[in-house]
Amino acid sequence: MFALENICHGYGSIDVLRLAQWSVGPGERWLILGPSGSGKSTLLHILAGIIRPRTGSVSVGGENLSTMKPARLDRFRGRNIGIVFQRMHLIPSLTVLRNLLLAQYLAGVKPDPLKASSLLDELGLADVANRLPDALSVGETQRAAVARAVVNKPRLILADEPTSNLDDANATAALDLLRAQAGSCNATLVVATHDRRIRDCFEHQLELGMAT
């Protein structure tokens, strides 16, 4: 599904991530572990094409993200990569439903209210579809962010610290939701976290240390 080669990235003069090689097949589920500052979020952003690494190549679905022009990269990301950020980043002035329709539009997909509404119903969000994000509970906000990430049935789902600040029951629910949605579209799932409670839920793991 994706392959990274000779990745190095940093901010200013400080390197935060070095990764010689990492390749993952379709439908696999991976956990990225590491302490704060080890480059977990940076790695996810590189995988999503949001950050271009200083050195190295990034290939997703056979496409080289490192050489794509911005407009094409934006469309490719919207259609093929679903992202659940650590901060949910729902558009506060749009309802939950319209957040999903915007995700379709930005991916170059014709907005489909019926499809988006069906997904919200599947995730138990039908009653809040026309609410603004500020009116949602923490759990509803999280499910809405997952819905936005998967509305275009991506081939790759990336989640950054999806269980941080959640108790055990809600952490399990959040993880179950991500795995179920990845399974429904046969997507590769990559979760980055420092939460070691969930490490036994993933067969494949990548542990990052501090770059030196």
Question: Care to describe what's here?
Answer:
The protein has 212 residues and is α/β, with parallel strands linked by helices. The chain has a single domain (2-207), classed as Rossmann fold (3-Layer(aba) Sandwich), CATH 3.40.50.300. Helices cover 33% and strands 25% of the residues. It contains 6 helices and 9 strands. It has helices spanning 40-47, 70-80, 96-106, 113-122, 138-150, 168-184; strands at 2-11, 14-24, 29-33, 55-60, 63-64, 81-84, 156-160, 188-193, 204-207. A 5-stranded parallel beta sheet has the order 6-7-8-3-9, sandwiched between helices. A 4-stranded antiparallel beta sheet has the order 2-1-4-5, with helices on one face. A hairpin with a 2-residue loop joins strand 1 and strand 2 (14-24). Helix 3 (96-106) packs parallel to helix 5 (138-150) and helix 5 runs parallel beside helix 6 (168-184). It is globular, with a radius of gyration of 17 Å.
